[in-house]
Amino acid sequence: MASGSTRLYPHALPPQRYLSRSTAMSFSGGYSEYFGMQVDEESIIHLMLSNHILHTLYPDCITIAEDVSGMPGLCKSVKNGGLGFDYRLNMAVPDKWIQILKELKDEEWDMGNIVYTLTNRRKGEDCICYAESHDQALVGDKTLAFWLMDKEMYTNMSSLIPMTPVIDRGIQLHKMIRLLTHALGGEGYLNFMGNEFGHPEWLDFPRIGNCESYKYARRQYNLLDPDNNLRYTQLYAFDRDMNLTEDKYGWLASQKVLMTTVDEKDKVIVFERANVMFVFNFHPSNSYSDYRIAAGPNGKYPLPLGSLSTL
Questions:
Q1: pLDDT tens, 17-51?
Q2: 20, 40, 129, 159: which has the fewest C-beta neighbours closer than 10 Å?
Q3: Is residue 82 within 8 Å of 144, Cβ to Cβ?
Q4: Any idea what DSSP says for residue 260?
């Protein structure tokens, strides 16, 4: 959160705004789903009033809606008939990444579907994008890093030993997933604590089922200690460089994205945003040289960030 800002972060907005109060409601995007008799008008007015008061009394505050329904007007100002939030979470994105890692082989990744999920938002309604959060890291599921590298994270993350194929693949994909999400998924970026360096373990808070244990109610920041000689520091360095690069070029503030390549055979995604060209090769075995892509003026293009840059 920016210094001096205030955040209103209502949890699970759909059951609050719909009379069914069901978190299992499904939404196809049809506008009748958002403006029928099933909508709780009193809850809508409550949210509008809350945002109006906050933004009037604290002009620098930021309010973010956790909304999976995709309700129109959620991030429009109250004076323009919206609910007045500044951002909503792009909640479909982390679910998509987990679904891909759980169910698909590398060669089965659908580039078009990934791009669609990342860009499926209304113009003018700003989104916070993220690759994973506590929802994916809670006990019973796995973090992105653990889906990618599994048990080898316990034995083969030392930088003093040769990198295994599993760790090599996992580190590169972890970087690419974060960068693609950052560059294409919204107008803001959320880093769940530990995701910036590929935290290996899940979260589990004290409860009857684990005998009120605090063992996994933690994030192991000691993994970043340089004296440990672990590759988590490389993942962290990439995350730092990714955010510094965005600070320099400002793609999150750019509303215009020019998609130039979505190639299912080559597993290549290319697009431009804020005069920055992003090139992703997700092919599990093919590297490309002299690969033709659409570009702007002739000349040499500097490479400010690459997935191999912090190895």
A1: 555 545 555 666 677 777 777 778 888 899 999 99
A2: 20
A3: no
A4: E
